[in-house]
Write a structure and sequence with these properties.
GO terms for molecular function: calcium ion binding. The protein has 298 residues and is mainly α. Among the domains are: 169 residues, no CATH class; 39 residues, no CATH class. Helices cover 51% and strands 3% of the residues. It has 14 helices and five strands. It has a three-stranded antiparallel beta sheet with strand order 3-4-5, with no helix packed on it. A hairpin with a 5-residue loop joins β3 and β4.
């Protein structure tokens, strides 16, 4: 049954349909499917799913690659260096200024990030095996992180903050960094442990989670394309023949032409659906009266 459902493409939920009288019911189907989609996702939720170190390095490179040539030159690497230095200085100044008040804030504003010199840039390129004239690609930048010249997790948290600041927030609360959000999550966990058990406490927790959900949306299509480019995501695309290319690279076709694809394509089990793909050896037949057929009978 499962093989039949896959061959007939019945496992895919259609988004277009018509009633018996020919009325388009696409809006009705979308209204039914809308409850199964969550529109409260944030870019931070997307970046938290990126765990592979190479993918993280590629995201950092694409964010600071101003000319989009796939390499970080001296100016672009200096921007990454300066942003990381400013973030580290602001974090240390904020930690020291907790007990000093306005003096700590003044020292944080006065701090400036050191610039990346030409000698340091050439030294980094030599250590990564890259050409200084060309710049650092993903492999070279990954080698620098592997050598311990910089912390990949710290730079990726910086990327999350910078990417969030680029987007327009619909919430009235100011955007918070990754560290502040993690501290708030820990405080919320402590409060949940101290709370009483019961249905009322669970309802209160659900309401609190929905109220504190950070909703960040792009202002226009250009901003959305920029976020997709930095994170290395691919949007679904409608091809010229009407098929849909999914972000995973697979192609979803119309159910009306599924039988054509089944005849020309390959089954999920690896069994070819082509002429001449049947077994070459002829199976043996079981006969009831083997003696009479062989001539040994009376």
């Amino acid at each position: 049954v499962r093989k039949h459902m896959r061959d007939k493409r019945h496992s895919r939920i259609g988004t277009e349909a018509r009633t018996r009288r020919g009325t388009d019911s696409k809006q009705d189907l979308q209204a039914e499917l809308e409850d199964f989609y969550d529109f409260h996702g944030s870019t931070r939720e997307v970046t938290e799913r990126i765990t592979d170190p190479r993918d993280r390095v590629a995201c950092i490179l694409r964010f600071f690659d101003a000319d989009r040539d796939g390499y970080l030159n001296h100016a672009e690497l200096s921007e990454l260096w300066g942003a990381a230095s400013r973030s580290a200085s602001a974090s240390s100044a904020a930690t020291q200024g907790e007990g000093q008040g306005e003096q700590g804030e003044a020292s944080a504003e006065a701090g400036e990030a050191p610039a990346l010199s030409e000698v340091m840039y050439k030294g980094a390129c030599a250590k990564a095996g890259a050409d200084p004239e060309e710049g650092l690609d993903t492999d070279a930048l990954e080698r620098l992180y592997d050598e311990g010249l910089a912390d990949l997790d710290t730079h990726f948290k910086l990327l999350q903050d910078l990417l969030t600041q680029k987007l327009a927030s619909r919430s009235k609360k100011p955007l918070k960094s990754v560290d502040e959000k993690e501290n708030e999550d820990e405080d919320d966990d402590d409060d949940d442990d101290d709370a009483a058990e019961g249905e009322e406490s669970e309802d209160d927790d659900d309401d609190a989670d929905s109220d504190t959900t950070e909703v960040i949306e792009c202002e226009d299509e250009d901003e959305f394309d920029e976020v997709m480019r930095v994170l290395g995501l691919v949007s679904a695309e409608i091809m010229d023949n009407g098929d849909i290319r999914l972000p995973s690279g697979r192609i979803a076709i119309n159910r009306d032409v599924a039988h054509i694809w089944k005849q020309r394509g390959t089954r999920f089990t690896g069994e070819l659906v082509l002429a001449g793909s049947r077994p070459k050896e002829r199976p043996m037949f079981a006969l009831s009266n083997g003696d009479s057929c062989s001539g040994k009978g009376a």
